[in-house]
Design goal:
- Two copies of one chain form a homodimer.
- Chain A is built from 14 helices and twelve strands.
- Chain A is of the alpha/beta class and about 350 residues long.
- Chain A folds into three domains: about 5-60, 434 Repressor (Amino-terminal Domain); about 70-160 and about 300-335, 3-Layer(aba) Sandwich (Rossmann fold), CATH 3.40.50.2300; about 160-300 and about 340-345, 3-Layer(aba) Sandwich (Rossmann fold), CATH 3.40.50.2300.
- Chain A has a six-stranded parallel β-sheet with strand order 2-1-3-4-5-11, with helices on both faces. In chain A, strands 7-6-8-9-10-12 form a six-stranded mixed β-sheet, sandwiched between helices.
- In chain A, α1 (about 10-20) crosses α2 and α5 packs across α14.
- Chain A starts with 10 loop residues before the first helix and ends in a 6-residue tail after the last strand.
- The mean pLDDT of chain A is about 95.
- Chains A and B meet through α4, α5, β2, α7 and α12 of A and α4, α5, β2, α7 and α12 of B.
- Chain A binds a DNA duplex (16 and 16 nucleotides) through α2 and α4.
DNA sequence: TTGTAAGCGTTATCAA
DNA sequence: TTGATAACGCTTACAA
């Protein structure tokens, strides 16, 4: 009847070895103060003679606490998601939570499956960056959920103040004496954050009584598609269209801004005086471009830290009740930071 | 005496609801074939009425299997580590293993602590990219370990054939009619992989009876330090030193190659005819540089896939014995791929 | 300060 | 095809 032992050293083994009960061994780890100095030493020795290794799985089951947070991100190649993921993982020493990361959730059904799986691991909270599942559904998961830069009606969230980012970009270009204001966007980026950026930009430009133009490039998973499309736009819609005017180009992502910059550099050997460029995101690449790129930076460290505070807070309060249910979600909005480098004065 | 219930729906609840025993419920999930068609339907209904959610923690404890692999990477900002991490996480749909990722292991003691923690979660295997802990120690962990691009005497590993990469770089520059061969390295990169690259390059250049020069730039965590240092080297050691010669610069990382390229572009408005540049790694940035960068590419997808095959293989065989012990580690060496873009002909 | 025993939610063995 | 029952390794009342 006795099932085959797994071969690992357990509290029972230590108990036998030392003559204590396994309760005392447990106490040694969880309430060392309640074990006498002397006995603590005895146990310590036993631990290393037996080469004991803590078993968190058993502990998780017994305590109903895993110290694991689930993370769902849309994809792996986007620099913003990577940065967020990396910063989150980096909070381990600060908060002690580990992350179970699942990515590639372009499909709604797959994302649902991922969530189910994470839930099965009894994650204590979920951080979600993808947008396929509505927040109404996420709110019913029974654990705290914090979204980052996504639709957030029924869940807590942190986002960048995209509207303010657009305003900042417009002001900088205005200070650079631009005459023509060009918004370079991709059709796929018609989600909420991009919309706010454009609105802030356009409203501000209109306030300055300056003309603006929308230009859309094509995009798919291939980088080359974007390059071809943007270069075509530069050639046909920009260079020829505004003679004698100083053009301020607001690119909704750093990667597209860099393509624009590279094109101009290859064509003219420099950034011509009648062009000013500003990107969005402050990706690592923006700093490393031929000419360090001016950009509206998301304050990612703050985004991440805020997300963790909110989530941990909700985890803490949720301990008091059984199943967590979101009463009033909190929405933190982080201001962007204008980073003026060399593609503007 | 009864401890407060956690509030979650268990097999017992489903058993009560349906009139079966919890054994049958377990069988429904694990050996559906052994439960009668009719009863399966009954259970299925109960599952959704009760809104059951699988508990992997309990399952892990009972089965002694977690489906989790540990991953330790040195840091979060290096693009190579990011890529590997992302590709590994992306294997989830293929292999069903989740990853617990810990990073920032510059310190040996912290890395040891991380390993202990991962072991506590009863990870089934470990993939390790950092180099602070010797493989002799890793081999004694009791679980399969696969290293990627690191010292690997006593553990299995996958690495790029760095020597061949150096050879490929030298040949390409030779085909580009270079007269002077310059190796641009950073002193911190004196680990094994970089050494192989340099050796392969130098031996090949010597075979061509061409002169070569070593140049080292400074580096710390600040990007600006690298830029300043490289620009100083360009100005003082390269531009002035080889008049009339065509210089082939082999940069041991793409990021330094891009700094060189940007400097030349900003100085001359183009890549002058008497310069040829080749980097190493094929990072995303290399493709997106002003002039798409020629580089020796690590075949990261293959590295990752090979690492997983080896690890899963060892996990499989280790099931047969209790504690895993490495008899004969396997060392896979993946050839690099020369990617000739626009900084060479 | 320590021990007993029940419990966490599964799986596995054995017998029916 | 099903059910009792003992694991898995730890925590936690409660009693001593």
């Amino acid at each position: 009847m006795a099932r085959e032992r797994t071969g690992e050293v357990t509290f029972q083994d230590i108990a036998n070895f030392t003559g204590f009960s396994k309760t005392t061994i447990s106490r040694y780890f969880n309430h060392p103060g309640t074990v006498s100095e002397e006995n603590r030493k005895t146990i310590e020795k036993a631990l290393s003679s037996l080469n004991y290794s803590e078993n968190r799985v058993a502990k998780m089951l017994a305590k109903g606490k895993t110290d694991i947070i689930g993370l769902i991100i849309p994809n792996l190649y986007n620099g913003f998601y990577q940065t967020i993921q990396d910063l989150l993982i980096g909070t381990y020493d600060k908060y002690g939570y580990k992350f179970l990361v699942l990515s590639g959730s372009d499909s709604e059904s797959r994302e649902r499956r991922y969530i189910r799986e994470l839930l099965a691991y009894r994650i204590e909270g979920l951080i979600i960056l993808s947008h396929t599942i509505p927040s109404s559904e996420l709110a019913g998961l029974g654990i705290p959920v914090v979204g980052i830069e996504r639709e957030d009606r029924y869940i807590s969230s942190v986002s960048t103040d995209n509207h303010m980012g657009g305003v900042q970009a417009a002001k900088l270009l205005y200070e650079n004496d631009c005459d023509e204001y060009i918004i370079l966007n991709s059709p796929t980026a018609t989600d909420v954050p991009a919309f706010g950026r454009v609105m802030g930009f356009v409203e501000t430009v209109q306030g300055f009584k300056k003309p603006h133009t929308f230009l859309e490039y094509e995009m798919d998973s291939e980088y080359e598609t974007m390059v071809d499309s943007i270069e075509k736009i530069m050639k046909n819609k920009i260079i020829s269209s505004f003679p004698g005017k100083r053009k301020g180009i607001f690119c909704l992502s750093d990667s597209s801004a860099i393509v624009v910059l590279n094109y101009l550099f290859r064509t003219y050997g420099c950034l011509p005086e009648d062009y000013r460029i500003i990107g969005f995101d402050n990706t690592p690449a923006s700093k490393e471009a031929v000419l360090p790129l001016s950009t509206v930076g998301q304050q990612v460290e703050i985004l991440v830290d805020t997300a963790m505070s909110i989530l941990l807070d909700e985890i803490r309060t949720s301990k008091e009740y059984g199943r967590f249910s979101q009463k009033d979600p909190v929405h933190a909005v982080i201001p962007p930071r204008l980073i003026s480098r060399e593609t503007t004065d």
